[in-house]
Amino acid sequence: MTRVLGIETSCDETAAAVLEDGTQVLSDVVASQADLHARYGGVFPEVASREHIKTIYAVVDQAIKDAHLSIPELDAIAVTRGPGLAGSLVVGMNMAKGLSLASGVPLVGINHLEGHLYSAWIPQENPEYREPQFPVIALIVSGGHSSLILMQDHLTYTQLGRTLDDAAGEAFDKVARLLNLPYPGGPSIQKAAENGNGQAFQFPRAWLEGSWDFSFSGLKTAVLRTLQELHADGRPVLVENLAASFQAAVVDVLCQKTLAAARQFHACSIVVAGGVSANRALRKAFLDQKEFPVHIPPLKLCTDNAVMIATAGHYRFLHGFRDDLSMDVLPNWPLVSMSQK
Ligand SMILES: Nc1ncnc2c1ncn2[C@@H]1O[C@H](COP(=O)(O)OP(=O)(O)OP(=O)(O)O)[C@@H](O)[C@H]1O
Ligand SMILES: [Mg+2]
User: Fold this and answer.
1) Residue 23 half-sphere exposure, CB side, CA atoms within 13 Å?
2) The domain made up of 136-297 is a member of CATH 3.30.420.40
């Protein structure tokens, strides 16, 4: 039996969770700072790290108590090492090191994106849960990343493509700002889009033929131009239609390119993870196609959490990975450097 404590502080969520045998979630605590950052329209790094400092002890303590365990009963402490905000990462890292030093429980450093991927390996209480089968084509779409990854096996990553400019979540956040919708932009656009027509505007899709990369800045500019034209012509601005048409363009590109990669690399499963995988239209597009089995985490595991870090920690621990107190945070850590092969 393995029991892993996960600690996540890479951005604006302070989170801790305990996982047993890689399948059973014994505790899952998330303290979100989203309301605090909403007034700045984005994450304010200095505010984020101060808030982590204030809440980290209580969050980890709660996770341990909810799991009815003591620290020495743990097999490993998995902590997000990067990528993320340096000042935020350091808070979780120091907490993990302190616990490890005091108890002798080994540390395992986790890449935040690897955590997002492993959220597809958490069965929760879902009786229909099936483990993704390799080779896996994984789409990570979050606030800072849009990446297509090939996983031939556990902990083995080949990056096929990434965003050349804005990440998918970043595009949602920026377009929401253009449309005067509240932060965070993803959920606001989704809500507005539900009352809009996705065909109202034919926004461009950057297919970038011959490459697995993504680009969303042209789409963002197209929304801005359309807004300016509507204003200049004195025509009504139907935010719902703009939001729905923007969302349709993003979903189209993400879904079609992922399916094409799955065909090319003979994938047995597709995994979609990261904050944008919470998007209802994106989930529907993937679940409606019947060509490949698709694994998308439940909503609460799409955005930042520590269960995913504990799950990745479980697999790393099983594969013999251990870190020591010399481990430091890596704010720009590429996922591919984690590959065990
Ligand atoms: N329903 C939704 N539709 C679209 N986007 C969404 C939705 N919910 C959240 N998002 C977007 O997800 C992003 C946050 O995701 P996540 O917490 O994984 O990002 P992050 O941790 O800040 O970035 P990264 O994981 O790349 O370091 C935000 O950009 C947010 O707008
Ligand atoms: Mg994230």
Assistant:
1) 9
2) yes
